[in-house]
Prior knowledge:
Elements: E1 6-11, H1 18-29, E2 32-35, H2 36-49, H3 57-65, E3 69-72, E4 79-82, E5 85-86, H4 94-103, H5 107-118, E6 125-130, H6 133-137, E7 143-148, H7 151-164, H8 171-187, E8 200-203, H9 209-223
Parallel strand pairs: 1-6, 1-7, 2-6, 7-8
Antiparallel strand pairs: 3-4, 4-5
Helix pairs in contact: 2-3, 2-4, 3-5, 7-8
The protein binds 2'-deoxycytidine-5'-monophosphate.
2'-deoxycytidine-5'-monophosphate (DC) binds near residues 36, 41, 100, 101 and 104.
Amino acid sequence: xxxxxxxxxxxxxxxxxxxxxxxxxxxxxxxxxxxxxxxxxxxxxxxxxxxxxxxxxxxxxxxxxxxxxxxxxxxxxxxxxxxxxxxxxxxxxxxxxxxxxxxxxxxxxxxxxxxxxxxxxxxxxxxxxxxxxxxxxxxxxxxxxxxxxxxxxxxxxxxxxxxxxxxxxxxxxxxxxxxxxxxxxxxxxxxxxxxxxxxxxxxxxxxxxxxxxxxxxxxxxxxx
Length: 224
Ligand code: DC
């Protein structure tokens, strides 16, 4: 008999807190976690390591299709291996963020990663974190959340993270960068960042992480 799998999609722009909340929710519910952004990041890193020109769509799609990756979830922080090398921190570098955003706009790359993303859906359930989880990858998911916050609020959170790391940054530049990225993500022709028509929109601008967590957990538990 096949076991019931509960699918929960969490989409939203960068800096909305999706990553942190997805991890917390997956842990609380004992569900698997798909960090789909990591797959685009790994594709970008693997392509660069193979000296592939990122403008060569077919070559990058081929890399995406043949990625040898492993997620080690045995500790609190997921460790990501590419061809058995730990790339957990390497894929978060700024150069890789830019490269990932470029390759994520290629339809053949998105198609190449589709089956891999769907394979994460195993019992008892999955928290799928990304941009097109509810619209393209898991359109039939019973629970769809779209987490957002104003560009200013997201910039403020990022500012605090960077200051805590000892970096000096100009907050107004962060706001501008976030607005530019939102613009690119929502206006691209392939899988643009838009809420699914049946998604619950969560605007976390004036909410604490605990409030957002409780609201999301409640919404999920009502469904399951
Ligand atoms: O969430 P993130 O910053 O790790 O995502 C990396 C890049 O991949 C970012 O440019 C958005 C893109 N992305 C996407 O297009 N679709 C997804 N499902 C997840 C991420």
